[in-house]
Amino acid sequence: MATPSVTLGIDLGTTSVKAALVEAAPGDPSGFVVLASCVRATRAEAEAQSAAAAPQAREQDVSRIIRALNECLAALPQRELRKVCSIGVSGQMHGVMFWKTGQGCEWTEGGAAPIFQPRAVSHLVTWQDGRCSRGFLASLPQPESHLSVATGFGCATIFWLLKNSPEFLKSYDAAGTIHDYVVAMLCGLPRPLMSDQNAASWGYFNTQSQTWNMEILRASGFPVHLLPDTAQPGSVAGRTSHLWFEIPKGTQVGVALGDLQASVYSCMVRRTDAVLNVSTSVQLAASMPSGFQPPQKPDPAAPVAYFPYFDRTYLAVAASLNGGNVLATFVHMLVQWMADLGLEVEESTVYSRMIQAAARQRDTSLTITPTVLGERHLPDQLASVTRISSSDLSLGHVTRALCRGIVQNLHSMLPFQQLQEWGVERVVSSGSALSRNEVLKQEVQRAFPFPVSFGQDVDAAVGAALVMFQRNLSQKEP
């Protein structure tokens, strides 16, 4: 009997690294099973390498990220690692790091298992970086792309370094996201390879022609030699050049994916599913019909963005900044009010009591627009409360209205009838804010005109593994 093949998925996130081992399970409804997984915090925040970038800079020490990755691999069962036949990698989008070709890492035996350690590399400038002011971004050339350029995007960061730290850029001849770097090091690639998902997240990439805006960038003096080659997500970037822990040399490694796309892939069972994630913020994603092309020019005021997905299709994504953090702000306000009145109460107690009160209050006329943080497409918008009457002032009314407002705000960004027109038949929902809030679940069910399933885990590491798993499966089919 053939040894069952195992796929390793890796996600290099903003605060942690996760690794998961996935194996085929014909008897399971999903067709696969997660054999083991491990998460390690990176604790990688670092001071900016350019003094001019502080205090808005957000950089991470690459060696700490790789240390967390090595810790994850060391914690997985060695017996299963020996069966790994392919590796899928995803990670935090938009960010950029630099390295010297041929000197990006050093392979060592590392005690029990061979590992690689970063060598001639820069920090990772993350998607949270704020060094590019509105004025600086306005000075950049207009991209030939449907996606606009923002601070924290790879190409914007390179433009900033070109203007403010040109000597810094001369030290390196390769660039990519942190996950592109890991794939390049595992495979010993002479040049980094990037999926269109990550290329689009850098800016100045045309997803229709699948090319960088070379003429526009060259005309502005941009160091185009730093731009990676691009490939389709789901394709193979190369094979491991060394034994890595117990994973055999010569194991297939997929081109690195965006964490958004890998997360959606992990729970979008059918193309007719939409994926709703309500955690600190809220994301609603749906796969666009085949043949859909986004508008030619960026529209910063549009509440829905279209990102490359798989097989030359797009994901429509409404990403609200106001989710579980709004409820947390409300709880904190109540606790502060009570402290001002000389009463002490735990936030966890307030949260559970207010949800219980809202569960008893099945409806309300009170309307809350919960945008205390504004939105990317409406940065100056504030929250508001309307339709206030003396009968709607209980804690239950206010909490019910707040939960409803979070869902209705998302609806204003991406009307749910639009999802029906795109062929969506079901909503797969997940996220910490939903799992602990029965009232929010009720409001989600009330708002969507189709069935909603709860309890699905959104997991980019599993999604990255599944992309390679499905690829291998389809190649084995006659």
Category from helices, strands and their pairing: alpha/beta
| Percentage of residues in strands | 15-25%
Figure out the total of helices. 16
Described by strand count, sense and barrel closure, the largest sheet is: 7 strands, mixed
Total DSSP E strands: 26
What is the global morphology?
globular
- Poorly predicted runs of 5 or more residues: none
Query: What oligomeric state do these chains adopt?
Result: single chain
Helix content: 25-40%
Average per-residue pLDDT, rounded, comes to 93
Rg is 23 Å
Overview of this protein structure:
The protein is α/β, with parallel strands linked by helices and 478 residues long. It is 33% helix and 23% strand. The protein is built from 16 helices and 26 strands. Strands 1, 2, 3, 6, 16, 17 and 18 form a seven-stranded mixed sheet that branches. A six-stranded mixed sheet has the order 21-22-20-19-25-26, sandwiched between helices. Helix 9 crosses helix 16, helix 11 packs across helix 12 and helix 12 crosses helix 15. The longest helix is centred in the last third of the chain and has 19 residues.
Could you write a compact summary of the structure shown?
The chain is of the alpha/beta class.
Topology (SSEs and partners):
Layout lengths: L5 E7 L3 E9 L7 E10 L3 E2 L12 E2 L1 H14 L2 H4 L2 E8 L5 E3 L5 E4 L6 E4 L5 E2 L8 H6 L14 H11 L1 H4 L4 E3 L1 H10 L5 E3 H7 L2 E2 L4 E2 L1 H6 L9 E3 L4 E4 L12 E3 L2 E2 H9 L5 E6 L3 E6 L16 E5 L5 E7 L3 H17 L6 H14 L6 E3 L14 E3 L8 H19 L2 H6 L4 E5 L1 H4 L2 H10 L4 E2 L6 H17 L2
Helix pairs in contact: 9-16, 11-12, 12-15
